[in-house]
Specification:
This protein is of the alpha/beta class. The protein is globular and about 75 Å long.
Length: about 775
C-alpha cells in the first residue's frame, strides 16, 4: 500500500486520502504557483497504524461518544484524553515509518521541515477546520519527525476539534493525512482572501501580514497589517498598519523563538509586494474557479540569507467557507456611545453582557449568550465561542483562524481593538456590530438569540427559474445546511468521497475479502440516507463510484486489488468497471434499493460511458437486481466522453432518462488536453466552440427525445455568459458548487428574462428553443 506521496503528485481528486491541505498544495503546484517542496503521509498511513496497533475500533466508538458529549466539558476532556492515549499506544506502523523516513531523506540530510495536519474533510468549501489540528514548525531529524506526525494524528481528538466537528454534524470516524514541507526562513508572512470575507464582494482582495512566521497572523496573536486591493486592476484601496509587539522566528538551534518588535515603524509589505501577492492569489482563484484563502510567506531563496533576496511562496490554499454569510445591518439599534472599535471580522449584530476572559481554560465562566471579550482567540476558544452571542478581541485580523470559525458559526466578531479587555468590564451591556467593527454601550431594541440557540436563518428570496439549479455534493455532513440554500436538489452526488469516509479509508474489495458486504451496504446506505432525507422531496442524483485505479490504490488494501495504469484518467473506470466487477456494482445497487425504500427522491447516474454495448450490459445488471421493479427510478448517464454525442439517441432507447454533462472531463477529451498541465493550461477552455457545439448537440438530442439534460462544472459560475448560453440551448438544469448556487440562479433568472424579451421582440435567432 502507498503511504507517502510527493506534493507534486497530488491533486484535488486525492483529497480523500491526502486531506484538503495536501491536495490543495498539489493543485497550487499544478497551477504553476511557488510552493516549498515536500510530501504527504496519506490517510492510509494513519489507518494502517491504528489498525495494526489494535485501537481503530475503540477510537471509532469513543469518537461517537465524544461527539454526543461535546457540551459536557468534563466528559469530553476525559474521552479526548483516552483517544489521544490510544493513538500514542498504536504509534506509527513500521511500513509507514519506513516510507516516511525515506521521503524525509530525499529532502536532504536532517533538513528542518514544517509538519502540518491535513485531516480528511479539512480545508474544504464547507468546513475549514481553521487552525484546529496540530502543526509544527522547524522540525529537524528522524525522531522529531516521527513524534510530530504522531502528535498530528492525536490532534484529531482534542476538545476543540470534537466541538467543531459536533457543530458541523460530522459524526463519522475521522482520519488524518500529514503534510511535510521544507521549512522556510520567514521574513514576512500572512493570509490573502480573494474575496471580501465580510461582505462577500468578489471584486476585492484582502491581504493581512506580519513580520516573522505566519502563526501570529492565523492564530490572532497580533494585529496584522491590513491591505484592501481592487481585483480588476490590483490597485491598493486601503492600508491599515497593525500592531505587532513580537514576531516568531527560527532560532539558531532550529527551533522557534519570540523576538520583540517596535510596532508601527514600517509597513510589513510595500506596494509592489502587495500587488505581487494579489496577482498570484488571483491566479490561484482562477485555477480553482472559486474564491480562495491562501497563506503566503516572503522568505530568502535557496543560498540567500537576507530579506533582499527573498521570494514569495504559497504554503496553503483552501476555499473561503463563509461567502454565503449575509452581513447584518450597517448600524445597530443601540444609540450608545462607541466604547471600542477594531476590524469587523464576522458579520452580524448582537447585544449581551460582557464577560472578559484571559484564557480558554476560563471558558466555563461564560454564560450562554454573553459577549466574549479576550486578548486573542486561538482555536482553543472554539467551545466558548459556540456559546457566545459575539466575540471581541484585543489582537487578531479578519483572516485569523478564530475569525474564520466565528464566520462559519454565525457569531458576530470584532478583532484588533487593542484595548477591549481593559476598556470593557464584566456585566457591562453592549452591542457588538461585526460589520462596522464597533462595540457600543447599551442593548439594541430587538431581541437576540445566543449562538448556542441560533436564530432561524432569514427567509431567502428564491428567484423562480425554469432552469433547475442543482448543487454538487460529496459528503453527508453538510447536507442539511446545503439543502437550506435556494437550490432545487442535488445534480451530482459523488459517491467516491462518501465511500472513502463511510468505509474508513478501506478499499471496497478489502471488505469483500473479509466477508463484510453488509458493512459496506449499511454504512453507505446510512450516508446516502442522510443526504436523501435532507433534500427530500427534491431529487438527489447519485453518481456511482468512479474512483480511478490510482485513487483506489491509495485506500487501505488497494495495492492488492488495483493495477498500475499509465493513464488512469482514460483507463479502468466507470461503466466498464461495473460490468467487469458486477459483485461490487450489485452492492451499490443494494445501497440504492435500501435508501429508496424511505427516500424515493434518490436516482442513479452511470459515469464514464464510452459505448453502447457496455451501457447495455450495465443496465442488464440493474434489471437483474431488485431495482428492476422500481418504475420510478431515474437512470442517468454522465456525458464526459465525446462518443456520447453519437450514441446518446441509442442510450435513450435503452431506457436512459437523463444526461448530465461533465464539462471538465468533456473539455479535456474534446481538446486532448490535461487541465492540470501547466504547460498546456491555456488550451483548456470549456467555452471553446468545439466543446460548446458538443454540449449543444447533447442538449438538443435530450430535448428532442424528452429526457432531462444537465451540466455540472465550474464554467457557469466562473465565466460570464456561459450560463446564458446554456439557457438559450434549452438545458433543463445546471449543477454547481453550493457556494455559488445563489449567484448562478441570479444569472440564470436574468438570462431567462432576456430570452423572453427576445421572443417578445421577435428575435427568434436570439431567443433559444421553446421550453
Amino acid at each position: 500500500m502507498e503511504y507517502v506521496r510527493t506534493l507534486d503528485n497530488l491533486t484535488l481528486a486525492d483529497a480523500a486520502v491526502a486531506g484538503g491541505k495536501g491536495a490543495n498544495l498539489g493543485e497550487l503546484i499544478a497551477a504553476g504557483l511557488p510552493v516549498p517542496g515536500g510530501f504527504t503521509v496519506l490517510s492510509g498511513g494513519y489507518w494502517t497504524s491504528m489498525k495494526d496497533g489494535g485501537v481503530a475500533d475503540e477510537l471509532a466508538t469513543l469518537h461517537h461518544e465524544a461527539i454526543s458529549a461535546a457540551q459536557d466539558s468534563a466528559q469530553l476532556d476525559e474521552l479526548c484524553s483516552r483517544m489521544q492515549s490510544l493513538v500514542s499506544k498504536a504509534g506509527v506502523a513500521e511500513p509507514v515509518l519506513a516510507e516516511l523516513l525515506r521521503a524525509y531523506t530525499d529532502l536532504g540530510h536532517d533538513v528542518p521541515v514544517a509538519v502540518r495536519s491535513s485531516a480528511i474533510g479539512e480545508d474544504s468549501s464547507a468546513t475549514s477546520f481553521a487552525g484546529m489540528n496540530a502543526s509544527f514548525t522547524n522540525v529537524r531529524g528522524a525522531d522529531a519527525l516521527h513524534d510530530a506526525v504522531l502528535r498530528c494524528w492525536a490532534s484529531l481528538f482534542t476538545p476543540r476539534v470534537i466541538n467543531y466537528r459536533a457543530s458541523q454534524n460530522m459524526d463519522t470516524a475521522p482520519a488524518m493525512a500529514v503534510v511535510v514541507q521544507k521549512m522556510l526562513t520567514a521574513g514576512r508572512s500572512g493570509v490573502a482572501f480573494t474575496a471580501d470575507p465580510i461582505t462577500g464582494a468578489r471584486d476585492h482582495i484582502v491581504i493581512e501580514g506580519a513580520f516573522g512566521q505566519g502563526e501570529v497572523v492565523v492564530s490572532g496573536a497580533v494585529e496584522p497589517d491590513h491591505y484592501a486591493v481592487r481585483k480588476p486592476d490590483l490597485r491598493i484601496e486601503k492600508v491599515h498598519r497593525g500592531h505587532q509587539e513580537f514576531a516568531i522566528v527560527a532560532d539558531e538551534d532550529g527551533g522557534d523563538k519570540q523576538v520583540a518588535m517596535q510596532s508601527g515603524e514600517h509597513r510589513v509589505l510595500n506596494d509592489d509586494e502587495v500587488a505581487r501577492i494579489a496577482e498570484l492569489a488571483v491566479r490561484a482563484e482562477q485555477h480553482y474557479g472559486t474564491p480562495q484563502d491562501v497563506e503566503w510567506v516572503y522568505a530568502p531563496r535557496d543560498g540567500e540569507t537576507t530579506e533582499s533576496g527573498s521570494a514569495l511562496w504559497f504554503v496553503q490554499a483552501r476555499p473561503i467557507t463563509t461567502l454565503g454569510v449575509q452581513p447584518g445591518p450597517a448600524t445597530s439599534d443601540s444609540k450608545g456611545e462607541i466604547l471600542v472599535a477594531g476590524l469587523g471580522a464576522a458579520p452580524g449584530t448582537a447585544s449581551g453582557t460582557v464577560r472578559v476572559l484571559a484564557m480558554p481554560s476560563a471558558g466555563h465562566r461564560l454564560h450562554d449568550g454573553e459577549i466574549l471579550v479576550a486578548p486573542m482567540t486561538n482555536p482553543d476558544w472554539i467551545p466558548t465561542i459556540r456559546r457566545a452571542a459575539a466575540v471581541v478581541t484585543d489582537s487578531g485580523g479578519m483572516t485569523c483562524h478564530a475569525a474564520i470559525v466565528a464566520r462559519e458559526l454565525g457569531v458576530p466578531c470584532v478583532v484588533g481593538t487593542r484595548d477591549a479587555t481593559t476598556q470593557l468590564q464584566d456585566g457591562q451591556v453592549v452591542t457588538v456590530d461585526g460589520d462596522r467593527g464597533t462595540v457600543a454601550a447599551g442593548r439594541r431594541t430587538q431581541s437576540v438569540q445566543p449562538a448556542s440557540a441560533p436564530a432561524a436563518a432569514p427567509a431567502q428570496v428564491t428567484l423562480p427559474t425554469a432552469t433547475k439549479i442543482y448543487v454538487n455534493l460529496a459528503m453527508p455532513d453538510r447536507a442539511e445546511a446545503v439543502a437550506a440554500l435556494p437550490v432545487d436538489g442535488v445534480g451530482l452526488l459523488r459517491a467516491e468521497f462518501m465511500l472513502t469516509q463511510a468505509l474508513d479509508g478501506r478499499h471496497p474489495r478489502d471488505l469483500l475479502a473479509h466477508g463484510e458486504q453488509e458493512t459496506f451496504v449499511a454504512k453507505m446506505a446510512e450516508s446516502l440516507g442522510k443526504i436523501a432525507a435532507a433534500f427530500a422531496p427534491k431529487p438527489v442524483i447519485y453518481r456511482a463510484t468512479d474512483l480511478r485505479t490510482n485513487e483506489f490504490r491509495g485506500l487501505t488494501g488497494g495495492d492488492q486489488f488495483e493495477t498500475v495504469e499509465s493513464n488512469p484518467m482514460i483507463g479502468y473506470r466507470g461503466c466498464y468497471r461495473y460490468i467487469n466487477e458486477p459483485d461490487l456494482f450489485e452492492l451499490e445497487l443494494e445501497v440504492l434499493r435500501r435508501v429508496r425504500e424511505t427516500s424515493p427522491n434518490v436516482h442513479l447516474m452511470i459515469p464514464f460511458v464510452r459505448t453502447r454495448w457496455e451501457l447495455q450490459e450495465c443496465l442488464e445488471l440493474i434489471n437483474a437486481s431488485p431495482l428492476a421493479r422500481d418504475r420510478h427510478l431515474q437512470r442517468w448517464v454522465m456525458a464526459e466522453v465525446p462518443s456520447v454525442v453519437y450514441w446518446l439517441p441509442q442510450y435513450i432507447t435503452l431506457g436512459i432518462t437523463g444526461v448530465s454533462i461533465g464539462s471538465n472531463d468533456l473539455t479535456q477529451l474534446m481538446l486532448g488536453v490535461d487541465r492540470d498541465s501547466e504547460e498546456c493550461s491555456e488550451l483548456f477552455d470549456e467555452a471553446d466552440e468545439a466543446v460548446l457545439d458538443a454540449i449543444e448537440r447533447i442538449v438538443r438530442i435530450a430535448r428532442t427525445h424528452g429526457i432531462t439534460s444537465s451540466l455540472c462544472g465550474q464554467a457557469p459560475s466562473t465565466r460570464p455568459g456561459f450560463a446564458e448560453r446554456l439557457v438559450r440551448m434549452g438545458i433543463t438544469s445546471i449543477s454547481v458548487n453550493p457556494d455559488v448556487a445563489a449567484e448562478v440562479r441570479g444569472a440564470v433568472a436574468a438570462a431567462e428574462q432576456r430570452v423572453l424579451l427576445d421572443k417578445a421582440l421577435g428575435n427568434p435567432d436570439q431567443a433559444g428553443p421553446a421550453r
